[in-house]
Amino acid sequence: MDKIVTKDMYLAAILVSYGSQIIEVDKTDPKKQFFHFDKLPSLIYICNEIGNPEQTPITSIDEIKSNFLSKKLYFPPSFVDCLRSVKSYLYSE
């Protein structure tokens, strides 16, 4: 299994909101901080043509990234709280 790593804070918050756990934040380079995750979520929700979310199985982080960038990814209600949590990882010692 590939490592699950991202430097994108918003993508990290999406992974957390879908149930992944941050296992480490690499702060070696203050300009590029990397989030390491335990696993990918098994399912995410993608909005279909009419805007309704549908469950979609996930096999790679690239699938999440492409749906995130194409604005098809459904953001769970917990996303805002997860974003705050991810930010707290950045500013904690």
Structure at a glance:
By secondary structure, this protein is an alpha+beta fold. It is 33% helix and 29% strand. It has one domain.
Task: Report on this structure.
The chain has 93 residues and is of the alpha+beta class. The protein has one domain. The chain is built from three helices and five strands, in the order βαββββαα. The longest helix is centred in the last third of the chain and has 13 residues, at 79-91. The protein is globular, with a radius of gyration of 13 Å. It starts with a strand and ends with a helix.
SSE diagram, text form:
Elements: E1 4-6, H1 9-17, E2 22-29, E3 32-37, E4 43-47, E5 53-57, H2 61-69, H3 79-91
Antiparallel strand pairs: 1-3, 2-3, 4-5
Helix pairs in contact: 1-3
Q: Compute the CA-based radius of gyration.
A: 13 Å
How many domain modules?
Answer: 1
Shape category: globular
Percent of sequence in beta strands: 25-35%
Q: Can you give the mean pLDDT?
A: 89
Task: Characterize the biggest β-sheet.
Answer: 3 strands, antiparallel
Low-confidence stretches: none
**Count of strand segments:** 5
Helix content: 25-40%
Terminal residue distance = 29 Å
Helical stretch tally: 3
Lateral arrangement of strands in the main beta sheet: 1-3-2
Helix-strand string = EHEEEEHH
Oligomer: single chain
